[in-house]
């Protein structure tokens, strides 16, 4: 996807900057709580892009590795980490074929990525493979509903009155329903634990007014990012996040036919 190659990621003039200011706070707080104080282990981010979430993961105390198919994005991530004095390993790879041995990581993250991969089943299976038994898989993605089409496709991409993202960024039929994802997790011996919704902190009318001001040129992306905050909620109709835990005895379960 061209936006992931060409956009400056960490710069306020970029649409991707909103990942840092709007999306990162809600999801990293959620994951921190579900990790139950785990730190000092190894963590993998699948689809790390420019490293916006990888640096947050490293700040939690994990020895962090990020993979992404975009060499340009990985260079941005590596340069930013180096400038900040962070030691994060970045490798060019895809989620469907992770270049790591079995049972390599204590935690794996795949955030805002499952709706972009070529093979969701294979990606989840690979994440499960490289997780240690008892390891935690943290993720967020977009549901496939009418509401998600209106918000993620219509408002944010398609309709110029409000759009902030390129029209080709997301494809609605690649969004994944929570029940579908739960099935993929179970198939890969990842025990699903919870799903929680992600939504704007402001009302729909106020949120649309913010987007409109950016579209009219009254605000830049930084102005929008400072005001558009996302929060955790119960509704999963548009975006949701969750976590699963890798079975400690998957081979025994297979022999029993479970």
Explain what you see:
This protein has 258 residues and is of the alpha/beta class. The chain has a domain of 176 residues: Vaccinia Virus protein VP39 (Rossmann fold). The protein has ten helices and eight strands. It has an eight-stranded mixed beta sheet. Helix 5 links the parallel strand 4 and strand 5. Helix 8 packs antiparallel against helix 9. It is globular. The protein starts with a helix and ends with a helix. The C terminus is likely disordered. One of its GO terms (molecular function) is 3-demethylubiquinol 3-O-methyltransferase activity. This is SAM-dependent methyltransferase, type 11. It holds the Pfam family Methyltransf_11. Keywords: Methyltransferase, S-adenosyl-L-methionine, Transferase, Ubiquinone biosynthesis. One of its GO terms (biological process) is methylation.
What is the CATH top level name of the domain at 2-143 and 171-197 and 240-246? Alpha Beta
> Biggest β-sheet, characterized?
8 strands, mixed
Strand content: 15-25%
Provide the helix percentage.
40-55%
Structural class by sheet pairing and helices: alpha/beta
Q: List the uncertain runs.
A: 251-258
Brief write-up:
The chain has 258 residues and is α/β, with parallel strands linked by helices.
Which keywords apply here?
22% strand; alpha/beta; 258 residues; single chain; transferase
Show the helix and strand layout.
Blueprint: H1 2-6, H2 17-34, E1 42-46, H3 52-59, E2 63-68, H4 71-83, E3 89-92, E4 105-111, H5 120-130, E5 131-142, H6 146-158, H7 178-187, E6 190-200, H8 204-215, H9 221-227, E7 230-233, E8 239-246, H10 250-256
Parallel strand pairs: 1-2, 1-4, 2-3, 4-5
Antiparallel strand pairs: 5-8, 6-7, 6-8
